[in-house]
Specification:
Elements lengths: L23 H32 L5 H23 L13 H11 L2 H13 L5 E8 L4 E8 L10 E7 L6 H4 L3 H8 L5 H11 L1
Antiparallel strand pairs: 1-2, 1-3
Length: 202
């Protein structure tokens, strides 16, 4: 029986390379502790499910699958989050090409898009994410909120740009000032990566 496991992805930059916007301590704990925790949680549940099949036992499926959804979604969202950032000065301040055209068509201007995205992230209730997404059926960009890691996602969407607004993403650096964290996030967005995701979704 195949028993493929999730693994923690490597960062494409050093733990201190996103300073001063995300500190080395903050990024290290977020990546090595929190993200690793979702990887471990998902793998633990998969191991339990595999063992139950081999033993022909019947685990309590409903809560296990609910927890699996939480951990796998957390793993996938964090993997996107790391890659849609890069050190300041190594990328464009604004999107270019097809993504820029799509943003301007949908949101009137890049500044209007930033304002809507930032408000979406700021107004997440409790722990969650804001995401720029693309829906092939309507061929449109949408900004969405995701509570926790797995609530209010719309099926068949492509997530292009995500920001983690769980407190564990910013509290060491910003305390309770989520808005300041969101404002500084725009300095380290990897627009080349986001544009690549957009092109792949078309």
């Amino acid at each position: 029986m195949k028993n493929n496991k999730f693994t923690l992805p490597d960062l494409k930059y050093g733990y201190n390379d996103l300073e001063p916007y995300i500190s080395e301590e903050q990024l290290t704990i977020h990546h090595k502790k929190h993200h690793q925790g979702y990887v471990n949680g998902a793998n633990s549940i998969l191991n339990t499910l595999n063992a139950s099949r081999e033993e022909n036992s019947e685990p309590d499926i409903k809560p296990m699958l609910k927890e699996l959804s939480f951990h796998v979604s957390g793993h996938l969202l964090h993997s996107l989050f790391w890659h849609n950032m890069k050190p300041e000065g190594q990328g464009e301040k604004e999107p270019e090409g097809a993504l820029a055209d799509a943003i301007n068509e949908r949101f009137i201007s890049f500044e209007r898009f930033k304002k809507e995205f930032s408000k979406t992230a700021l107004s997440v209730e409790g722990s969650g994410w804001a995401a720029l997404s693309y829906y092939p059926d309507s061929q449109q960009l949408y900004i969405i909120q995701i509570e926790k890691h797995n609530q209010y996602l719309i099926p068949n969407c492509y997530l292009l740009l995500v920001i983690d607004v769980w407190e564990h993403a910013y509290y060491l650096d910003y305390k309770n000032e989520r808005g300041k964290f969101i404002e500084n996030f725009w300095n380290i967005v990897n627009w080349e990566e986001v544009n690549m995701r957009y092109q792949s979704s078309l």
